[in-house]
Design a protein that fits this description.
The protein is mostly helical and 100 residues long. It has one domain: Helix Hairpins (Orthogonal Bundle), CATH 1.10.287.3510. α1 runs antiparallel to α2 and α2 runs antiparallel to α3. The chain is elongated, with a radius of gyration of 17 Å. The relative contact order is 0.13.
Length: 100
């Protein structure tokens, strides 16, 4: 019953994240939107894992745990790159817009 609700929620989260990645120009906001998209994918994989007739499938659950670790690592690396970009250029927007 609630599987479709979580799937729709995952789809909406993914759409919101995609909108943020495509529309926003600030690097930190784009990174945040990409993390929202990753969370939507994790939610969808959990829904897929829970809807097997024999019980929860451990493979998608392991993929979600691995994905969370990778997402945290990539977020930290991306934040370091954004910080370096700002130190070099003095701007947080690659297109040269205002910082605030």
């Amino acid at each position: 019953m609630t599987g479709w609700l979580f799937s729709v929620t995952a789809g909406l989260l993914f759409a919101i994240g995609l909108y943020g990645v495509l529309i926003r120009t600030e690097l930190v906001r784009r990174l945040l939107a990409a993390n929202v998209m990753a969370t939507a994918v994790f939610l969808f994989l959990i829904v897929v894992a829970a809807e097997t007739p024999d019980g929860p499938d451990p493979v998608p659950q392991a993929m979600v745990l691995t994905g969370i670790v990778i997402a945290v690592s990539l977020t930290a690396f991306a934040l370091a790159l954004i910080r370096h970009f700002r130190a070099v250029t003095g701007e947080s927007d690659p297109e040269g817009g205002d910082d605030d």
